[in-house]
């Protein structure tokens, strides 16, 4: 099956009505730049659809707010798919890796993603003018470390939406803040996926 069909079927399974054109453009840029920049270990477009695009979009039901910070975004995951799916959401992609930042700038330019800002910085050195409604990351660090590194970036009533595979019970036991775990199925991805939601109140 062509990757475009896998993408459309996956979006349908997730219950999302999103124009897939920009998602396809992003995938093709990721595939093209990956050869030189080593942005992801996943090499084929078909696997990128499920493991990157659909996995990123699966957290969309838990994203409520006007601004989102994607910490350690890497190749723009989950931030770029979320920006395409939710054009009214202001998204900042944060990463310290120069190669990945150059790739993201090209994605923003080609896809005309006006709701995306790209920042090259370590998270502890980043001090923006606004605080964010949502902080997310995909395998950036342990939950405890993530909370400590990003507490200065989240709005008083904001929340962390942290993407994980298996339910991270050991990490949850190490934090003092109340949290909830939302499990979900990603089309084409074997095994459990979940996100940990922690409200800043």
CATH architecture: 3-Layer(aba) Sandwich
Strand content: 15-25%
User: For this structure, what is the CATH homologous superfamily?
Assistant: Vaccinia Virus protein VP39
The biggest sheet, with number of strands, parallel, antiparallel or mixed sense and barrel status, is: 7 strands, mixed
CATH topology: Rossmann fold
Question: Whole-number average pLDDT?
Answer: 96
Helix content: 25-40%
Number of strands: 7
Gyration radius (Cα, Å) is 16 Å
The arrangement of helices and strands along the chain is HHHEHEHEEHEHEE
Structural class: alpha/beta
Shape: globular
Task: Walk me through what this model shows.
The structure is a single chain. By secondary structure, this protein is α/β, with parallel strands linked by helices. The protein contains seven helices and seven strands. Helices cover 38% and strands 23% of the residues. Strands 3-2-1-4-5-7-6 form a seven-stranded mixed β-sheet, sandwiched between helices. The longest helix is centred in the first third of the chain and has 18 residues, at 20-37.
Q: What would the keywords be for this entry?
A:
single chain, 201 residues, alpha/beta, Rossmann fold, seven-stranded mixed β-sheet, 7 helices
């Amino acid at each position: 099956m062509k990757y475009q069909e896998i993408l459309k079927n996956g979006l349908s399974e997730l219950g999302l009505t999103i124009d897939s054109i920009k998602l396809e453009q992003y995938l093709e840029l990721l595939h093209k730049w990956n050869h030189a920049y080593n942005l992801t270990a996943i090499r084929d477009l078909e696997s990128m659809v499920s493991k990157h695009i659909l996995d990123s979009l699966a957290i969309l039901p838990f994203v409520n707010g006007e601004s989102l910070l994607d910490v350690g975004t890497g190749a723009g995951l989950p931030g770029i798919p979320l920006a395409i799916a939710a054009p009214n959401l202001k998204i900042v992609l944060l990463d310290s890796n120069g190669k990945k930042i150059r790739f993201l700038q090209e994605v923003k330019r080609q896809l005309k993603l006006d709701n995306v800002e790209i920042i090259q910085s370590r998270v502890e050195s980043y001090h923006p003018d606004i605080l964010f409604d949502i902080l997310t990351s995909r395998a950036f660090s342990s939950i405890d470390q993530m909370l400590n590194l990003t507490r200065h970036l989240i709005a008083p009533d904001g929340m962390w939406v942290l993407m994980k595979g298996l339910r991270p019970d050991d990490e949850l036991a190490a934090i003092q803040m109340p949290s909830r775990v939302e499990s979900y199925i990603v089309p084409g991805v074997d095994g459990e996926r979940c996100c940990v939601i922690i409200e800043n109140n």
